[in-house]
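Q: Given only this backbone (325 positions), what sequence would you predict?
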């Protein structure tokens, strides 16, 4: 009888030690960027019902949060601000004493080794909830660019290490790069939300940031989830305009896009593991339907495998604890 000829791939899976030896993808705590929602006021620690474990924090509560973040080994945070007063042009976004600016100063004074990434957008600050200037119901592109550049410069003055513009206006990276350079911040990198889809996965974030549009939607400036090649065009434009990092948002349903971007561009790629992705896992875990630790680490591994160099994730603190085990 002829002997069967086949490959024995299971040889490299036979025990935990050999599996670790040949593991191709690794998730490290240094990969994580932890988003934090800061609000004006005092003694505020508001749980966000649609995002279990995530809270809105006033500045006097931020130190406790940062102590935990640093103790866990997380090196980077992403700041979102919720102001007391909103107006048509989001003027609190570029106020030198705005909430993100003050939170940045607090963190850089107390935790200088932590990288502070400032979300640079207007939607949390406008009374209409859109990411730009409105005229007769239309989101105007070019007039919005000046306000975004002003916001970035104000954040850099406050000590932000990286500017992360998320508005998806055409030319936003070029405008911000020009503004930063003219203000003497030519060394501040731009982490561009270059590939940002008009996704249903953002729902819980809009609760957290109070940024739901008061009319219409954001489909005229965020991307159609059905499109792939458009993502490469967007990323190419931002690279040419001076982006130093490229963010793909959301991540879990867009791993193919992340791999495309990583294959095409020689810059760090950042996955944004967004609020809806986080909340689905949390809800299933609370119902006992899944093993949260195993699922989360598998999801984060999939993002690294797809090409992410860094991951913005609300799971960061939990994942850091699990990795430390």
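A: Predicted residues:
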């Amino acid at each position: 009888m002829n002997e069967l000829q086949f490959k024995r791939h299971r040889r490299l899976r036979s025990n935990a030690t050999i599996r670790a030896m040949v593991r191709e993808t690794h998730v490290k705590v240094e990969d994580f960027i932890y988003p934090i929602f800061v609000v004006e006021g005092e003694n505020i620690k508001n749980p966000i019902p649609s995002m279990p474990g995530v809270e809105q924090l006033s500045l006097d509560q931020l130190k406790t949060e940062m102590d935990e973040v640093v103790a866990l080994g997380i090196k980077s945070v992403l700041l979102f601000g919720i102001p007391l007063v909103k107006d048509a042009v989001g003027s609190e976004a570029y106020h030198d004493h705005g909430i993100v600016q003050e939170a940045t100063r607090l963190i850089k004074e107390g935790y200088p080794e932590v990288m502070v990434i400032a979300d640079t957008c207007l939607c949390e600050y406008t009374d209409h909830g859109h990411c730009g200037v409105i005229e007769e119901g239309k989101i105007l592109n070019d007039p919005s660019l000046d306000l975004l550049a002003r916001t970035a410069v104000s954040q850099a003055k406050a000590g932000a290490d990286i500017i992360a513009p998320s508005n998806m206006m055409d030319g936003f990276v070029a405008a911000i790069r020009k503004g930063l350079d003219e203000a003497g911040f030519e060394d501040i990198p731009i982490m561009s939300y270059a590939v940002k889809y008009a996704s249903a996965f953002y729902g819980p974030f809009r609760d957290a940031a109070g940024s739901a549009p008061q009319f219409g939607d954001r489909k005229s400036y965020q991307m159609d989830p059905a499109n792939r090649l458009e993502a490469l065009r967007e990323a190419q434009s931002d690279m040419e305009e001076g982006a130093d990092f490229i963010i793909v948002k959301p991540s879990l349903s867009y791993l193919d896009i992340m791999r495309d971007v990583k294959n095409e561009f020689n810059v760090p790629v950042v996955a944004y593991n967004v609020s809806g992705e986080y909340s689905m896992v949390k809800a299933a875990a609370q119902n006992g339907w899944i093993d949260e630790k195993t699922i989360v680490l598998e999801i984060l591994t999939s993002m690294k495998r797809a090409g992410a160099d860094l991951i913005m994730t609300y799971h960061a603190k939990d994942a850091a604890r699990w990795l430390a085990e």
